[in-house]
Amino acid sequence: MKRIKTEFLGAKIDSPLVLPAGVMGMSFSGLDYCVQNKVGVVTSKSLTLKPRSGHNGPVIAEFTGGFINAMGLCNPGIEEGLAEIDEFKERSNTPVIVSVFATNTKDFLELTNHVNNSKGDFLELNLSCPNVFDEFGIPLAASKDKVYEIVKAVKEISNVPVIAKLSPNVYDIVEIATAAEKAGADALCLINTVGPGMLIDKKMVKPILSNRTGGLSGPCVKPIALRLVHEVYSKVNLPIIGTGGVTYGDDAIEMIMCGATLVGVGTAVYYRGINCFEKINQEIIKFMEEEGYENIQAIPHLEKIK
Questions:
Q1: CA distance 48 to 104
Q2: Residue 129 a catalytic site member
Q3: Angle at Cα 130 formed by Cα 21 and Cα 35, nearest 5°?
Q4: What is the C-alpha to C-alpha distance for residues 297 and 74, in angstroms, rounded to an integer?
Q5: In the chain, what are the domains?
Q6: What is the pTM of this model?
Q7: What is the pLDDT of residue 1?
């Protein structure tokens, strides 16, 4: 698949497709299974300092257009999570993004020190989880000052490139992205799930999710993701991992045209199976052959917003 090989923050990537945080769990075998099905980069679940069981079920539901979920950041904790990543790296050269979540700068720094002692290739700061309002309040990514503070502090000690994962649920995402850039972020990931939203069980007369609300993902959020990726690309000079509703090759092409360097593929695993990565790769290649693009870098971007 020579046509779709690319680079990201100095790493050679066989495919522009990224497995986002949380989609395939945390085991090294799950990550390796995605690589066998032609994903270019894998991301860990968002890891916290201590293990988290997450919210009580039900935590996910399908609706016309996508999914709503409130997993509650369930994860095995940073130490066990990194052990799985190190095991994965014993078997694969595929780059790994270690995603971490905390609520303050001190804890993000402690998480960073753990990642520094791992085989992870990149560090993703999850500043944007929308379904833990009851525990942590408004996402950190809603504050440009907090984003700047955390990214700057982490960059000062991190041994690997730092990716800031931003929330779509803000008034001005360009303002937040600019703060991350000024603080020294190496790249951005956007978007996280949209919301929170709610679904109702009519017979039970109650919300379907035990958390009542959750974040939206899937095809329904793609237009939002495309707009936000393009807005940030127009104003910020950082590589972008664009994610949100990418199910087919055409979706990935649109995301790249909006300015994404890499493209996250999540709910497509449900809709099209684990081999969705290989299918999307082939669909991208088919489009490039039809349009005469020699490599993925030749795909044009939309004109930047003035």
A1: 12
A2: yes
A3: 10
A4: 37
A5: 2-298 (3.20.20.70)
A6: 0.95
A7: 66
